Amino acid sequence: MKTMIAARTAFRIAGCLMLFATLAYGQTEMRQTGELIPTFYVDAMAYASSQPQKSRVDVYVQVPHEEIRFMKEGDTYIGRYEVTLTLFTGVKQLVHEQTWSVDVPVNDFAQTSGSRLYSLTHRTVDVDPGSYQLNVVFRDQESRKSSQVKKTLVVTDFAKDSIAVSDIMLVSRLSIAGEKKTIVPNITGSIHPRSEGFFVFFELYCAPRLDSADLLYRIYDSKKNEVYRRSVREAITGAKTQIFMKVDSASIPMGTYFLSAEVVVQDGISGKSYRATTSRTLNVRSLDLPAAVLDVDKAIDQLVYIARETELQYIRDGATQDEKHRRFMEFWAKRDPDPSTQRNELMEEYYGRVQYANQNFGHYMEGWRTDMGMVFIRFGSPENIERHPMELDTKPYEIWYYYQLSRQFIFVDETGFGDYRLTYPTTDLWGRTR
Q1: Residues 62, 44: Cα–Cα separation, whole Å
Q2: What residues does each domain of the chain span?
Q3: What is the model's pTM?
Q4: What pLDDT was estimated at residue 181?
Q5: Which residues contact 359 (CB under 8 A, 6 or more apart)?
Q6: Distance (Å, rounded) from C-alpha 347 to C-alpha 375?
Q7: Whole-number Å distance between alpha carbons of 284 and 252
Q8: Which residues contact 269 (CB under 8 A, 6 or more apart)?
Q9: The pLDDT of residue 434
Q10: CATH topology assigned to domain 42-284
């Protein structure tokens, strides 16, 4: 049943894309599964290891149920998938590889989908300190669908300094029973802007004779403006101290942020002061928006390729940010190909294309504003691309072919710095002369 629903949804999306904004799916040459929007999430943190001269890397893999194809077996539904984890050095030398299978049983059909239901697995690897490329591949065993997440990982040598701190983990849930703390990590790295706050966790490593540490937490926005600061003193409980701290995120607007924790320890005997820092990025975003949308105002501007000017103006005229958000969601709700699900697949596809354009076509301006970005967002991946980077007596150019639409687009790099401009057709996508 889930397979049939997914097929119908895909058909509706394709139809909506064609009718709504002449968007079209194409065979992808530039885009591969999992590169546009991750279908699953990976986070990796480095800690001190019990093995000499090693550090420990904890890798967490979170797969939403909606990415797993469940099959009915008796009174339950079973989803099965496989994860392959590889670690490479900076010179592409393989240092670790492992594959494991995961069974996900659920009791009723409603639990087989939904963006807030997920399967979480975890593996630990002991490695030499250094820089690594982490690759994680998810494969659904029933649908054979696969996607990949790549991350750069810097593993600290926690033994070389007098004090050291591990990487920061964002905590989704924290429960305390006496002295025991149980944590569920936040693997997506996203925080809801109106939540009651969130916890961060990391470990402090130092000499047991030291008794306390002063901690300074700061959060910066993308323009390096400080939006949050908190100072606390923590008791040192031994050679390894686990530290939890709650961050009040209610006043932090949507966006991408940089969180840092600075630890200062004073040695009362020698009078020396020791300092260590750790940091990570995090996203504050609304749960009803795709992962690619972190700024509603910018997301509204990015509707320019598919919305009428009157629609754009109506959304922008919202008296408050909440009203703009509501009107923005109304715009997309009218175009949801499958309102019976929590996801709006058309909105995800559109902003996935915007994200891809920003990552691949930007130069002097954001990728979504470029000519290549405009065409990609409107029509998706070309079915074929002719690239002519260096030819005698011609400037670099590319031809994108959309055979199913009987269209082609020619881009010329007039400056030689990757600034490809649309030269054919000579009218824009709305039929106006360029």
Answers
A1: 12
A2: 2-33+290-424, 42-284
A3: 0.78
A4: 79
A5: 367
A6: 17
A7: 8
A8: 209
A9: 59
A10: Immunoglobulin-like (2.60.40)
Q: What is the pLDDT of residue 9?
A: 46
What pLDDT shows up at residue 288? 84
The type of residue at 68 is I
- Which residues, at least 6 apart from 358, have a Cβ–Cβ distance to it below 8 Å? 366, 367, 368, 373
129's enclosing H/E stretch is: none
Token pair for 341: 């699900």
Q: Residue 43 to residues 18, 34, 85, 153, 194: CA-CA distances in angstroms? A: 36, 15, 12, 10, 23
Q: Which long-range contacts (CB under 8 A, 24 or more apart) does 67-73 make?
A: 67/39, 67/40, 67/138, 67/140, 67/145, 68/104, 68/112, 68/119, 68/140, 69/2, 69/3, 69/140, 69/142, 69/143, 69/145, 70/2, 70/104, 70/106, 70/109, 70/112, 70/142, 71/142
- pLDDT < 50 positions in the chain: 1-15, 18-36
- Joined together, the tokens standing for residue 201 give 């966790």
Q: Cβ distance 336 to 12 under 8 Å?
A: no
381, 372 Cβ separation under 8 angstroms? no
Q: Token match 């996607």: residue?
A: 147
C-alpha distances in Å from residue 153, one per residue of 43, 220, 280, 339: 10, 22, 12, 39
